[in-house]
Every structure is written in structure tokens, then in C-alpha cells.
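Quick question, first post here. What does this chain look like in 3D?
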Amino acid sequence: MEIITQFVQAETKNTADALVFEKLEQLGKHYKWIIRADVKFKEEKGTYGKGKICEIILSCPGPQIFASSNEDSFEAAVAETIRDIEVQLKKRKSEMQTH
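> Answer (accepted):
Ran it through. C-alpha cells below.
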């Protein structure tokens, strides 16, 4: 699986980058059919939300899988986004097995 990370309007943070890489590698071992992961970290200043956003788009058979979360830190945003992705991957896997 190819993993591409981008920091948009945010300072590059190696811990968040390493964490998302580690988590996606684990998912890639479990779901061999994931082709590519595009990860974007965004920082929104002056908003009412928490401000640290992590977006993940997975390319795999069928429609792309997308999840996003807005938390106090990039690490928390990664954890929440990965949880959302796992739910969608489990659903996709069950749909693939029924055919």
C-alpha cells in the first residue's frame, strides 16, 4: 500500500506522520486489497472547532473510503479517523464476502 501524507496550512509534525503510517500499515496487513492512502493534516485557526483536522482517503476496489475528524491534537485526530476507517473497512469486507 502506498501512503501519501500532506500537511496543509500546518507545521509538519513527525509524531503524527509516524502514527498515521503505523496505523495504516496495520490496516494494510489486515486488508490486503487497500491500494493507496491519501492523508491530509489541516490546521484551522480561529474556528469554533478544535482546529486539528485529519482526513484519510483510501483507494480500494469499489468506491473510495473517506473519513475525517477534528480534534485538539493531530494524534487524537488520527486515532478518531482510523476508528472511522476501520468501521467502513469491516463493512466493505463483509459486502465483498457475500458475493
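The helical segments are 14-30, 74-97.
The beta strands are 2-8, 36-43, 52-59, 65-71.
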